[in-house]
Amino acid sequence: MNASPAAVAWIAVDWGTTNLRAWAMAGDRVLDASARPLGMGALKREEFEPALLETVGGWLSDGRTVPVVACGMVGARQGWAEAPYVDTPSRPLDAARFVRVATADRRIAVTIIHGMCQIDPADVMRGEETQLAGLLALEPGFSGTACLPGTHSKWATLGRDRVAGFRTFMTGEIFALLSEQSILRHSVGDASEPDEGAFAEAVTESASAPGALAAWLFSTRAQGLLGTLRPAEALARISGLLVGMEVCAMRAAWIERPLVLIGAPALCGLYARALTLLGARPPALIDAERCTLAGLAAARRLLAG
User: Could you tell me the pTM of the whole model?
Assistant: First the structure.
């Protein structure tokens, strides 16, 4: 796709720690998309505007200002401009807490969406609030639980168009640390695709005794040393033990409530399997990009009044 600058009404941006993704928009319709490995973690404050222009410059024309609505880590303390947190319970988007960023290039007018926080237990999110707003835009009146698997998985309780509360699990980050930097890396080897049967077995083991997680993990290493576990099975066991522990910990959030998984299809598939193994009804799955775009569009409508 190649969007004509004249057709671009506004630009949607999801700016994370690692990547910058942008979409040229006409209303709720995507005209074009662009992505760069220009995440918040690699940029100094003065480098954000050039990075954005490098990504979306082809959609801009002289003499016209295009609104840009951005979510994610771009609004973190180390980002382009710090956007405040909105306390739960609250609606996922509050236009009064959005932050307008001054730019040298007059072709863009940049607004950053706030994050969300919870005081007790302490928790924060940036970017996921926009996906939750997207869920509510796609499924008006949704009341239940949304799980957003990822590096830091989020479980949010929603009702009456509000986020009542949420919890974050560092499951994805812990998986990466264990499989790439701990002694378990020797058992995993160069495996890239986990074994489905070993994943299922690990999920049920972890749920049966979550307090024994550290022991289950070392047992995985021991099985590798004794030659009774292949690398693909070891990779699956690490994933299954961690996901099983997380799903088990959130049992009260899904056992008798509607549940939606928002994220990449492959990762959501793993969580859906773990959930069904532990007694949940098959959850609904929604692609993360779809929710992000729906949430950014909702934010744009709020700005437009």
Answer: 0.95
